[in-house]
What does this fold into?
Amino acid sequence: MKETLLAMKRQASSRRWTPFQIAVHLAALTPLMALAWDLWWGNLSVNPIQDITFRTGKAAMILLVLSLAVTPVYTMFAFRRVLKIRRTLGLYAFSYAVLHFLTYAWLDYDWDFYLIRLEIAEKPYVLVGFAAFLLLSLLAVTSTKGWQRRLKQGWKRVHRLVYVAAMLVMLHYIWVQKADIRQPLAWTALLGILFIVRLPPVRRGMVQWRQQRARSRQQSLSAHMTPSNEDITPLN
Ligand code: HEM
It folds into this structure.
């Protein structure tokens, strides 16, 4: 009985959000709140649907990249708390992608699949976005502990599809632009860096760098703590 109560208490405290997690949720909800604010006060452009499409798409893309930055940040700084927000960021990315898709298919095209088909023939980047969206949906559905148990080793393999989804998103983002592609290229470069730092030799180098930094910090700390000859020489 006592053990069960203790286990329940432990589970309840692990469910409680830390200030860091609360900050992450607030930051992830900011684009939505800003959009609701601008919608309410009529601050959107003359083409509000396009505005909403852009803003939800951008938020989804940024959150996806941030979710992919979690593992490298952990490798570099051993900041354990970031691991807890990886799934949260991924699910927020997916939620914004759902809003992005609904804005397109519902607000813009009123579920008119004939018109959507015509547009896809003219703008294939929509199909690329849709493929990314399908992958993100699969990852969101299978992100639970239950699916982790069910898929066992296969779970990791399925979740590697996030790299394919991210590449498709960048292709979609670049393709959508009519003129200036500097921003999408910068995001693609960042994604490339996040892929490179996952390569085993690079990862090993990062771990070594972290350990070496920790060791030298320890050494300088103990040098400060060890009393020098002057300190132990009697004053008189
Ligand atoms: C569900 C399928 C999708 C459809 C139908 C779709 C459609 C669109 C459309 C129509 C645009 C604007 C094009 C324009 O007006 O010039 C756009 C832009 C964009 N989409 Fe998607 N998209 C989809 C999936 C995604 C996903 C999954 C992401 C990211 C996770 C994404 C990220 C973006 C970004 C970043 C932009 C450009 C925003 C900007 O330039 O500020 N899209 N998408």
